[in-house]
Amino acid sequence: MITNNDIIYFVLTDRFRKGKSTNSAPTNPSDPNGWHGGNFQGLIDAIPYFKNLGVSAIWITPVYLSVGATNASEGYHGYWAMDFEKIDPHLCAQNADYADKPKQYLADLVAEFHKNDLKVILDVVVNHTGYHTQAYHDYDEKRFSAWDFNEHDPSSEIKGSLCGLPDLNHDSPYVRDYFVHNLLSWIEETGIDGLRMDTAKHVEKAFWYYFKSTVKTRCPKTTLIGEILKSSQHDIEELANYQKKHDFDSVFDFPLRTTAINCFAHGAPLTQLARPRLHEYEPKGVLD
Fold it and tell me: Can you tell me whether residue 238 is helix, strand or coil?
């Protein structure tokens, strides 16, 4: 479980550190859009560094098997998943003993971190797949049928495709059921301490009720942190609803981030952060 006492360090695994590995997956560090070779062993090798920094939890980018080069970029960051069941071979040396339990690579990483009193938050995606996923021969076309995807609706935050990525329809009972059980498997098979949910505001609301009644009930100590990219002070009430209604343990405080940047980088008055409130009609700061 992640608590307010934890200090979280974010790692984009492929860009962090390359540890010694027999992994033969091709990398090209000179290409800013390609794989650079950071891997699980690099994270393990960095444990003394994390400990020296004083952090207590490591948040890693998605580990899914990702699409290859598309739109002039590779899926090195993990957010363009081709297969939600497997770990990308770029991230770890392949072990024939793990053929039937692909999540074991992450379980080994988590065990090593736990041994050193460090927690692990796994970044996960349920909103979309990677670009042109169905064109890849390794993709299981039976996993999602055509009606499991939304028709692009540019007027909808939920039904519209994000950056052109195939948008999954969580109003489909099959899609809801698939991802609830998929997330349960990542939690229970690896021992992770928390989930960081990508693009949460783009997912159909029905999914969160199903998630709450199943995943949060079965794994109450697994912390759910939501990325809801709403940056205005006026969005705070809507952000809070993800905690009040959907059982998110925490969400990113983008309104505070935006205001801090405005104040400290762009010269906005500090009263936008907080103010003494000498009169009732004075507008509140974001911290108020």
Answer: helix
CA 51 from chain centre, in angstroms, equals: 23
> Rounded distance, CA 161 to CA 80, Å?
13
Residue for token pair 């169905």: 134
Using alpha carbons only, how large is the chain's radius of gyration in Å? 20
Alpha carbon distance 100, 192 (integer Å): 20
Give the CA count within 13 Å in the CB-facing half-sphere of 182: 15
The residue behind tokens 């033969």 is 24
Cα separation, 30 vs 52, in Å, equals 30
pLDDT digits (tens, 9 = 90+) for 198-253: 999 999 999 999 999 999 999 999 999 999 999 998 899 999 999 999 999 999 99
Q: Residue 40 corresponds to which amino acid?
A: F
Taking the C-alpha atoms of residue 131 and residue 165, their distance in angstroms, rounded to an integer, is: 5
